[in-house]
Amino acid sequence: MKFPTPRTAAQAKAARTRETARGTRSAAQVQRRGSARLAAAAEAAEAAEAGNSERRLRVSTYNIHKGVLRDFTGLRRVARIHELRARLHELQSDLIFLQEVQGQHQRYARRFAQWPAESQELFLSKSPTAQQAFQTAYGRNASYLHGHHGNALLSRFPIVGLENRDVSDHALEKRGVLHCTVDVAGRRVHCFVVHFGLLAASRERQLDALLGWIDAEVPGDQPLIVAGDFNDWRNTLSQRLCEAAGVVEVFDAVHPRMLQRAAYFVRDRLAEVGAFEAPPMSRLPRMVRTARTYPALVPWFRMDRIYQRGFRVTAARVLRGLEWARLSDHSPLVADLELPEDA
Questions:
Q1: Is 278 left (phi over 0), alpha (psi -120 to 50) or beta?
Q2: How far is CA 210 from CA 80, 166, 191, 196, 205, in A?
Q3: 133 contacts 228 by C-beta, under 8 angstroms
Q4: Which of 70, 63, 67 is nearest to 80 (CA)?
Q5: Which of 93, 108, 171, 268 is the least buried, fewest Cβ under 10 Å from its Cβ?
Q6: Mean pLDDT across 71-99
């Protein structure tokens, strides 16, 4: 039997060391390549999620009644603007369509100790910690000796264009529509803040003006949101707006609850067999009725709307309850929208 010489044993040990080193390096390379692949996958997932989150947005509309409301006795006015700001920021909305926004009111400023020194849309755009959270646009509708008020848009997206138009139908009732263009994930989204009049004939003419504006200024392939206080409690404008502008009301785009679906099915079948005369709006292809928003304490009238085009609606709801009834005579509407990926 031959025994390895000391030199041969040393060479064998060195060879084993080299093999071990090569194995260690190979394992390290494999581990690094695996880590790199995992990191790349994580980055891709984060980028996809960031892209999805950029396309998702929450939209609210709210008639804030100038931030002042009578108490429940009806005997005195109470400023609610500070509470209203806190509640608005709790909604975590990306676009807030506001009506009856007080740009200036010298009498309220003298009467209420904590009345904001700035225009209400600027005050509401800041969080309660005074940090700027929204870009703002304000459209003055009514001017008087001690101030003015109008519509406003609060946006977490860049506002790249705005125009306000007077659509008043007579001198006693000043109304306007505010058009803002915002940049959402690289897409131009057209937002119209609406506050129509109290008379049916006025609302018809104001809708004509709005439809002409949309037709002239908004390309048919661009996303569109029309929201606000339409004062259309009989729902006579909705069909014409939907057909002419190609929009869908958010409550028509979400599926109703089972009990609602069953109730509407029974109602429509009874109308078909002549058990009662169906109202005109039941002939529309609607699954749910517009949310009741007025008066906020006991909502009965369907005054406020959110219409959209080019989005996927994932949720829609009206916010009711005593805490909201203390802030305004209207209840706010909230809808979750998403721009399709191929949009």
A1: beta
A2: 31, 11, 12, 10, 9
A3: no
A4: 67
A5: 171
A6: 89
